[in-house]
Structure formats: C-alpha cells, structure tokens
Model the fold of this input.
Amino acid sequence: MSDIGLMVDNDFDYDEDFSYESMHHEKKTDSGDKKIKILKIVFFILCLLLAGELVVYKYVMPLFASPKVTVSGNKMFTADEIAMKLIPMNSSTWLDFNVDEAVSILSSEPSIESVVIEKKFPDKIYIEITERKPVAVTFIVENDTTYPVEIDKSGAIFTDRNGSAFANNKLPIISGIPVEYMAGGRRINSKYRPLIEQINRISNLDQNYFASVAEICVIPKDSGNYELALIPAQSKIKVLTDRSLNEEAIKYMMLVLDVVKGLETDVSEIDMRYGSVSFKINNVPGEE
Done:
C-alpha cells in the first residue's frame, strides 16, 4: 500500500507544477494585452485631438475671420470699389455676411445690371457682376451742369465712369429724349424704348453705320408720337425721317446724301418721311 501512495503523491506534484506555469504565462499575456489596449486608446485620443484641431483651424476659425471675397465680371469697378460699397453692411465675418442685403446694395448701382452672390463654406464669397453695356449716349442737365450719360438696351441710364462714351464712335448721340426718375434709377420714357431697341440691333451689325451719324434728334409731335432727325457726321444737312430706324433707312439716307452732294445747290434739309424724298434749299421747299 505504501507503493501505491508514493505513486499518487508523484502524480499530484506534477499537476501542481503544470498549473503554476500555465497561470504565470496567462498573467504575462493579460499584461501585454492591457498595454496594447492602453496604447490604442492613447493613440485614438491623440487622433481625435488632432482631427478636432484640424476642424477648428479649417472650418470653425474661418467662420469668425474676414471672408475671402472674389469678384468677377467687373470692368467699370475695381474689386476694392465693390468692397467699399458693401461697408454699410458692417459684416466682418463670413457668418455675418448677408447675401440678400449685398445683392440689394450692388444692384442699386445704376451701371450694374445684375448681381449673383454665393457663400461657400467656410470663408469664401463669390460675387459675379453683370455691368450694363451702353448702346447710345445722351446728355442730362443737373444744377446748371451738362454731362453725358449712357443708355443700355433696356433704356436704363447710367454715368459714363471710364470716359469712353465718346471714345467709341459706335455709340450714337441722342438728343431731345426725356428722362424719368424711378425707384431703380433713371430711365428713358417707355415710349422711346423701341428706338433704343432699334439702335441696339443696328449696333450689333458687322458694319458700323453710326460712324456716319453724328446725332439722332428726337422730335416730339402733338399727337404724342415722335419723329427723328438724323445729323450726318460728314455733313451739316439735317435728315428728317420717321420712327423706323433700321439698316435700310440709314443706307437710303447715305445714298440720298451722295446724290445731294452732286447737286450745285445749298441743301439745308432732306425730308425722307411719308415714303418720298424732299429737300430745302436756303429754306425754300423743293422736290428732288
């Protein structure tokens, strides 16, 4: 029986040694896993802090800084002049910038036809301006001072900012046309809009017909309508015509002027109204 007891004791001692080594190995593994988990957590926190800092610098701080404004389509105005016009808004940050108010301010400028403004997150503002294109020049008297203004195709009147009204001889001079003061600025009377549309169509032709016309005079009639008197650029002869101003009428006028130049008479006026041609010689009516 003693032999059996020795065998039992040996087996028990072996099992104790095996269990201790296993537990020691498991403790080392658990300790390593904890360190890795801690490192992962620290790395994740650092990444979050870095990402948060990037978000703050890239998106949050620009919202409270001065916006970056880009202006396009401007020829009469510089970008600084556009910025000066928006000073009354008192918007120092991108968040404070009111698009509708800015559009209203810039659209009130007579020489600006339309404005499109876009805010792009986080700090950019894009301003696209469409300026009015002149088709004719007229004169306005204010405070005993006469100065030229330009008329666009819609009849809107605006000031010649760059002094090019007379530098471009494609713009005809119109006289005798009344000006109305409206909420959106000064405009010619709607009755004369067809005349401006006719001038615009002629200006878009390949040939510069208005180089031969020094002035277009509007002559009101008692009936409420009007007629036109064209003053040629190379002649002192006044040419009377009706309201139909087109390419054919100007060509016909130039042809009649060439014929009159060949006559040995002092013609002061040519009347092309009512489908016929008549002229005045020293204030005496006659027929050609």
